[in-house]
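Listing S7. Sequence submitted for prediction.
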Amino acid sequence: MILPTDEKYLQTKFIKRGLKQIEPRYERFQIWLSKQYAKPLNIYCQKITVNNTKKAQIEIILEYEKDFDKFNWSTIIDNKIKTNITVKNDILKSFFDMVNEPVFASFYNKNFNMYEDTFINFFTFENVAKIETIGNITKDDKDKLLKEINNPDIWLISTMFHGTTFFVYTDEQKSKYQADSTTKNDWTRRYIEIIKRYDEFYSFNGEYKLDIDSKENFDNNWGGNWYHYYK
């Protein structure tokens, strides 16, 4: 998982802003991948160790979450997620045909099997940008919003990754507000106005879905512990 503080994301932001280009050695592969599946914003390669054995890893950063669906990357068989080997091998063959990757130079020998010894990871810029946007919302922003709403039933506003939960005090209140679309839409509308101030790349497209929970549930079922609640 890539987080907003990761160098890969920070560098990809320059590409998204039009201030940088993808590394030249990836350009042919980028064009091919764009035609076959979806255009990557950026590509990173690194060596990793799996069971004391060195492996190659290719990380493909796509622009939008919907782009990942174009790869038909995996299917569920017997309740297990299985990688589409045909797609994976197609991508790997084209990568190694088109890219002279210096990070993998030590692998280019008779013992290296590009299909078995290379992992591919996908990330979407949009998803990380959403996490960054919500993470940039301050306590002051939340406090001001609660003051504007002026509803004593609300305990607090909690955020994690790109999700936001309005906590009321009791389970009864939780059920009430989950069923009250008028109030929930008003809270959402006000919250979206805050999101817009931080959403540099318009990742939420002016839309958002709030969750509603209760302090009663948090205390009774999660021991009042945020780590356990969000785990």
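Caption to Listing S7: primary sequence and predicted structure tokens for the chain studied. The first helix runs from residue 7 to 16. The radius of gyration is 22 Å.
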